[in-house]
Design brief:
Bound molecules: S-adenosylmethionine
CATH topology of the largest domain: TIM Barrel
Radius of gyration: 30 Å
Number of helices: 17
Largest sheet: 8 strands, parallel, barrel
Oligomer: single chain
Distance between the termini: 55 Å
Strand content: 25-35%
Strand order of the largest sheet: 1-2-3-4-5-8-9-12
InterPro entries: Arg_MeTrfase (IPR025799), Arg_MeTrfase_PRMT5 (IPR007857), PRMT5 (IPR035075), PRMT5_C (IPR035248), PRMT5_TIM (IPR035247), SAM-dependent_MTases_sf (IPR029063)
Keywords: Cytoplasm, Methyltransferase, S-adenosyl-L-methionine, Transferase
Helix content: 25-40%
Number of domains: 3
Subcellular location: Cytoplasm
Organism: Medicago truncatula
GO molecular function: protein-arginine N-methyltransferase activity
CATH superfamily of the largest domain: Divalent-metal-dependent TIM barrel enzymes
CATH class of the largest domain: Alpha Beta
Structural class: alpha/beta
Number of strands: 28
Length: 647
């Protein structure tokens, strides 16, 4: 039974499993842990831990004779696949210097994974690599991954490992287990069926170090009962940091597995001897209180706000950015924009302030402001401007300029419906080529993409500036793009799945969720409107950025860059998605993601040097990007060969 659906949809249900010892009575393991214990699944060894291939008697024909496992008939196929995660024998060491042991380990790994595949298990837990080298282990797993059905392999990784070499306990340093994971998955070429299962003990690393894992492919967190504290009434509970970590796992769809013995006064019934349990004990599973506690943490999480719930399906889903200049937007795209009340509230504030600055109170009844909404869509900025006029008592004449003929149809209907005929003139034209009958005091536009200028607002507004009076106001008055390096293995793997370079040289609009933001953002390109008179500055840009990886993060993988924008609409009224200043409750823009063809590993405290270009040609605008240090990457999207925005 899931930990509860908290009233949300099915995608919000979370499951909790339990790690068990080997038993040759699988039906009993299932009944005890799922019926008595109320766990959702077991992580159970498939083979007797004393089994060693080299010790198996050869038959008269010289071939090794199994069985190395019990019969598949003891559970139904659906029980195997829904309720059992196979636990590969933990004794195996594929990098052992003892050759017999190493070969036994290889044989066992292959046999057990083949058996798990035969049972159609959804996942198998691989033991942590032992020692410092894992090359042979990774080689065997990589071979198996090449033709594995769709079973997932979870590599067990302890979140922290005390360094055995340190001189004494007080000076004990922690070995960064991320490095082990990183070596292993690099050797397996970031295979999408290989993930990490993190072992959680009582010690936790720094927040930045932990944060990295949320950009990695982590499927499970194995919470050892040793990491629980005992509350005043003798019940198991977790420290605040552990609680926050578990909540974060829930938020990232990471399954929880309880492991270990019950060591708390209120929880202790002999954990292992469930064959001989009494009738009273049959009502009790030794780890029941731990499960209940985890369930309680899940239940007390704040419900997702409605908008977040709506956006669940978009999490980490790569989309091509809109091309509103080259293409005509569809009705449903306009509808989505128009639902974003916060965006129009900010525009109305900005227009009101600009109007008040432009016309003093004493002239309000005699002067009329000419305001042009350029790229009016179906009219929400026209409405916001008229509301600003009402709010400030300033008289207004509006031109609504729109190049999408379909949106113009709706604009006409809107003007008629609202009785705005005397105030609003609709112009069906591209603002870059329109011959305006008079000049504007205020130009209002929203031509912004997730990266600010990526929907060609600069080029469009250059055209529109011809009909802005000297001293006139543009809303927005400026916008700036931002980037930050991210670990985002899911995004990287989704790009990689296309198996071509061009997808790696494309920027994607995406609601980034499973990612670790490795440093604060830095600004990239700024555009200001109107451009100063006689400013012949082109819209090409080049920026070199230096990011410093925090010292306490540990090493991390950079899969690409998350991009955002912030726009100054007018004076102190801004609108944007840059995380540190993002406009609350605004949902019109997801972030943008610039991938890297080869992820780059960065060390704590090191510098990451990144170059970004905005390039302009007669027919298109495009970005190029690269990493210069610590190791140079190819320049992505040279000449806009893979991704560009049409003029
Ligand atoms: C992002 S939408 C915003 C629409 C509307 N202002 C809103 O806030 O819902 C941008 C609009 O500008 C229009 N547009 C883009 N470039 C334009 C151009 N050069 N001339 C006129 N309209 C343009 C698009 O067709 C689209 O309707």
């Amino acid at each position: 039974m899931p930990l509860g659906d908290r009233g949300g949809d099915k995608s919000e249900a979370r499951f909790c499993g339990v790690e068990t010892e080997f038993s040759d009575d699988m039906p009993n393991v299932i009944t005890f842990n799922l019926s008595t214990g109320k766990f959702d699944f077991v992580v159970a060894p498939l083979t007797d831990p004393s089994y060693r291939p080299s010790l198996v008697q050869k038959d008269s024909l010289g071939s090794a004779s199994p069985p190395f496992a019990g019969s598949d008939l003891v559970l139904s196929p659906s029980q195997w696949s829904s309720h059992v995660v196979g636990k590969i024998s933990s004794w195996i060491d594929l990098d052992s210097e003892d050759e017999t042991f190493r070969i036994d380990s290889e044989t066992t790994l292959r046999q057990e994974l083949a058996w798990a595949s035969h049972l159609s298990l959804q996942a198998c837990l691989l033991p942590s690599p032992k020692g410092t080298s894992c090359a042979n282990y990774a080689r065997c797993v990589n071979q198996i991954l090449q033709d594995l059905s769709n079973m997932q392999l979870w590599l067990r990784i302890p979140l922290v490992v005390p360094d055995d070499d340190s001189m004494d306990a007080s000076s004990a340093t922690l070995v960064d287990s991320w490095e082990t994971w990183n070596s292993f998955r690099l050797m397996c070429e970031h295979h999408s069926q290989l993930s990490a299962a993190l072992d959680i003990l009582s010690t936790l690393p720094s927040a930045n170090s932990l944060g990295r894992w949320f950009g990695e492919s982590v499927r499970a967190a194995i919470v050892n009962t040793d990491s629980f504290l005992t509350n005043g009434r003798g019940y198991p509970c977790l420290s605040k940091r552990h609680q926050m970590l578990i909540t974060r796992f829930f938020n990232h769809n990471i399954q929880i597995i309880i492991s270990g013995n019950s060591g708390h006064p209120k929880a202790s019934v002999d954990a292992n001897d469930f064959h001989n349990r009494s009738v009273a004990d049959s009502q009790r599973h030794p780890l029941r209180l731990y499960l209940e506690y985890v369930g309680h943490l899940y239940q007390k999480m704040d419900p997702l706000p409605e908008q977040e719930r709506f956006e669940l399906g978009y999490r980490d889903y790569l989309q091509s950015p809109l091309q509103p200049l080259m293409d005509n937007l569809e009705a449903r795209t306009y509808e989505t924009f128009e639902k974003d009340a916060m965006k129009y509230i900010q525009y109305q504030r900005a227009v009101s302030k600009a109007m008040l600055d432009m016309i003093p109170d004493e002239e309000a009844s005699v002067k009329t402001i000419v305001l042009m909404v350029v790229g009016a869509g179906r009219g929400p900025l026209v409405r916001a401007s008229l509301q600003a006029s009402e709010e400030t008592g300033r008289k207004l004449k509006v031109y609504a300029v729109e190049k999408n003929p379909n949106a113009v149809v709706t604009l006409h209907a809107l003007v008629k419906l609202e009785g705005w005929e005397d105030t609003v003139t609709i112009v069906s034209s591209d603002m870059r080529y329109w011959n305006a009958p008079e000049k504007a005091d205020i130009l209002v536009s929203e031509l912004l993409g997730s990266f600010g200028d990526n929907e060609l607002s600069p080029e469009c507004l250059d055209g529109a500036q011809r009909f802005l009076k000297p001293g006139g106001i543009s809303i927005p008055s400026s916008y700036t793009s931002f980037i930050q390096p991210v670990t985002a293995s899911k995004l990287y793997n989704d790009v990689k799945a296309h198996k071509d370079i061009s997808h790696f040289e494309t920027a994607y609009v995406v609601k980034i969720h499973n990612a670790a933001r490795l440093t604060p953002c830095q600004s990239v390109f700024t555009f200001t409107h109107p451009k100063p008179v006689n400013d012949r500055e082109s819209n090409q840009r080049y920026k070199k950025l230096h990011f410093t990886i925090p010292n306490d993060t540990g090493s991390a993988m950079v899969h690409g860059f998350a991009g955002y924008f912030d726009a100054t609409l007018y004076k102190d009224v801004h609108l944007g998605i840059e995380p540190s200043t993002a406009t609350p409750n605004m949902f019109s823009w997801f972030s943008i993601f610039f991938p890297l063809r080869t992820p780059i590993c960065v060390k704590p405290g090191s510098k990451l040097e990144v170059d970004f270009w905005r390039c302009c040609g007669p027919k298109k605008v495009w970005y190029e990007w690269c990493v210069a240090s610590p190791s140079p990457s190819p320049i992505h999207n040279s000449n806009g060969r893979s991704y560009w925005v049409g003029l």
